[in-house]
Specification:
Strand 7, helix 4 and strand 8 form a beta-alpha-beta unit. The protein is about 35% helix and about 25% strand. By secondary structure, the chain is an alpha/beta fold. It is globular and about 65 Å long. Bound molecules: zinc ion. Zinc ion binds next to loops.
Length: about 450
């Protein structure tokens, strides 16, 4: 007989009858068994021993695009001028230094920071596969296993999006640290990822998915191999897409096509595909992404940090695409800030408010974000769904005064990561009263980042 855990929530966002949206309800009783909700009832009888969750209780949040090791760059790249491309040089310096021994504590602490902010699933875009000289580790998936261990110890579900990265640009071979990313060709990548998939075939907390780093990094004729592997396993497929105008210009020069057109020709668009950034698109690109039901993962705090631009989120939704949100470079880790930034950036461009609705932003944070990572059974407070709970304080310095009747909008537009008090993932309490089960995550980050920069 497995234990039943019960919670009573002052205020919770309960899933609606259909997959779309939900309703805000008071005094919600929740029961959990074997990591799933077995009861979600508004105003029902409270079982003895039920835990009380104050504030606003949300379902789990998905960080649909993460690079854990970029956490070691925070506070080291923001001053002065420079571009995406000069930022990338600093990022490559860190990528060149990492070892399994330094990557584990860094990723574990970075993932713990995410859980403290309300994230219950991370989509880790994993391309740092090999040793610094490009040769494989004894187990070619050594660093993939490191990320799985890090996520498990941090108490978060993982979509490990193993990334095919073969070239350093159109018709350019990998150079320097990029050699750590490469598998030679897409079929060698697929063989390695297949071994990774089989290693976790029975895992319930993990999805092994595929990624093509970008059309810069995977030659056009090899894209179908990556897309085919994902399709044959019904796995998520992610790709960076049109983050910078230079990528579009180079792609047009090399192929006479936009990056979106190349992905479409490769059979890489569709309902299991996520285009990360999708910032600089033509109207034909938007139509193709929408018609195929592709998800666009916006990473607004990174996109503004790297001067990428503001993508056409409204047009994508109207065309039929879905939205998700990602921390990407981890310049900050704050899911509510990602959501509000998606809307606030559009306000600055359009001179109008309400470009993206609160239900659309909520779906991106919860259901659609989870679906884009292969966890369609998460992100909803409903019987049968994965038992994730995220409690957000409504009486903090930032959130005091939020109208309970409009608490979701209030939280999205005003709350910070520090307002998350409790996080339950698959029925397991990972954060209680603002404390992660690993302890002082600030200290863990500090030590892990110092170790990376001392190396070499
Ligand atoms: Zn990225």
């Amino acid at each position: 007989v497995s234990a039943v855990t019960a919670y009573v929530c002052d205020l919770a966002f309960v899933a609606g009858a259909t997959d779309a949206g939900g309703v805000l309800a008071a005094d919600v009783v929740v029961e959990v068994e074997e990591g799933r909700f077995t009861r979600v009832e508004v105003g029902g009888e409270v079982p003895p021993g039920a835990e009380h969750l104050r504030g606003l209780v949300l379902p789990g949040l998905a960080d649909a695009h993460s690079h854990a090791f970029h956490r070691a760059l925070r506070g080291r790249t923001h001053g002065g001028r420079g571009t995406f491309w000069s930022w990338r040089e600093v990022m490559y310096d860190v990528a060149g230094r990492l070892t399994p021994d330094t990557y584990l504590p860094l990723a574990r602490a970075a993932f713990a920071e995410s859980v403290l902010a309300g994230t219950t699933t991370i989509g880790e875009f994993h391309y740092l596969h090999h040793q610094p000289d490009g040769s494989p580790y004894a187990d070619p998936n050594e660093l993939g296993h490191t990320l799985v261990q890090a996520a498990r110890e941090a108490g978060v579900r993982l979509a490990l999006l193993d990334t095919c990265y073969l070239t350093g640009g159109f018709d350019r071979s990998l150079e320097g640290v990029q050699r750590r990313f490469g598998d030679g060709d897409a079929s060698a990548w697929a063989d390695r990822v297949e071994a990774l998939r089989q290693a976790y075939a029975v895992a319930d907390d993990l999805v092994v998915g595929a990624a093509a780093h970008s059309v810069r990094a995977v030659p056009a004729e090899q894209l179908p191999v990556v897309a085919g592997w994902a399709r044959s396993h019904e796995a998520p497929l992610h790709a960076h897409l049109s983050e910078q105008p230079a990528e579009n210009a180079d792609c047009l020069a090399a192929h006479g096509r936009t990056p979106t057109e190349l992905l479409e020709e490769a059979g890489a668009l569709g309902q299991r595909t996520t285009a990360v950034h999708a910032t600089h698109l033509t109207s034909e690109d938007i139509a193709a992404l929408g018609a195929s039901g592709t998800t666009a993962c916006l990473c607004p705090t990174t996109e503004r940090d790297l001067a990428d631009g503001i993508g056409p989120a409204r047009e994508l939704l109207d065309a039929g695409a879905l939205l998700s949100l990602g921390s990407d470079s981890r310049a900050i880790v704050a899911p509510f800030e990602e959501a509000r930034a998606a809307e606030l950036h559009l306000r600055l461009r359009t001179l109008e408010r309400g470009n993206l609705t609160v239900p659309e932003l909520t779906a991106a944070l919860t259901t659609d974000g989870h679906r884009s990572l292969g966890f369609a059974d998460a992100g909803r407070l409903a019987v049968g769904a994965r038992a994730d709970l995220v409690a957000v304080q409504l009486d903090s310095i930032r959130t005091a005064g939020i109208d309970a009747a409009d608490a979701i909008a209030g939280v999205i537009f005003a709350a910070g990561a520090a307002d998350v008090t409790d996080v339950v993932v698959d029925g397991r309490p990972v954060v209680r009263d603002g404390e992660h089960h690993l302890g002082d995550v600030g200290r863990l980050l500090d030590e892990a980042i110092a170790a990376v920069h001392e190396e070499g």
